[in-house]
Design goal:
This protein is mainly alpha-helical. It folds into 2 domains: about 70 residues, Helix Hairpins (Orthogonal Bundle); about 180 residues, Cytochrome c oxidase, subunit III, four-helix bundle (Four Helix Bundle (Hemerythrin (Met), subunit A), Up-down Bundle). The protein is about 75% helix and about 0% strand. α3 runs parallel beside α7 and α4 runs antiparallel to α5. It is globular, with a radius of gyration of 21 Å. It starts with 15 loop residues before the first helix and ends with a helix.
Length: about 260
Amino acid sequence: MSHTYHPYHLVDPSPWPYVTACGAMFTTLGAVIYFHYSQPWLLMLGLSVLVFIFLVWCRDVIRESTFQGHHTHMVKRGLKLGMLLFIVSEICFFFSFFWAFFHSSLAPAIELGTMWPPRGIEVLNPFSVPLLNTAILLSSGATVTWAHHAIISGRRDEAIRGLALTILLGFIFTMLQAMEYIEASFCIADSVYGSTFFVATGFHGLHVIIGTTFLAVCFGRLVVHQFTRHHHFGFEAASWYWHFVDVVWLFLYVCIYWWGS
């Protein structure tokens, strides 16, 4: 029997796409049930399934890449293109939130008192915690770039320090935003201002948590010598995602926190 040799990786049959779809369905249905009846069990099950899938799917991709050698130059090109297209889809995702915000803020309806912010909304001071969070996230962008250049240069200890600092800054950002939410005088149900504010900043916060988790996985791989100067696309993808999160926050800060207040 003849064998055809090619640079592509034909993956083995995997149960994870099906289980991921089930987890997403459980999460969606569970969220609806939780919002209406305050029963969180199906939502927790769905989220648990998604976290489990994240772990095992990362394990499989790392195994295929690092230990089985399936990620050839051509495969890495495909992965890079896939990551870039994913980030483009995320840009479209956040564009819809900015569209909703400017649709309401540039021409406030009479129900809002024809003013923005709407009457009765006490907005957050953009030069307190939001400005601090901006400095933290921009600093984390610098530290992840430092870690990336250290990997390329073969300076592993520096890369570990830079990546650890990035993860710490991401964690601090999340804690400060959670504190800000607790202290806010308005909630997601307070007119269109509360809705657009919490949906846009909340989804950004979720992306920060995902990005921090992504970087934490890369930190573990870096510690156990799974990244080399020429084989570190997992970290490269995480750094691209983190820079995207940085840029989105700058737009959020300028448009919603500063101009919107």
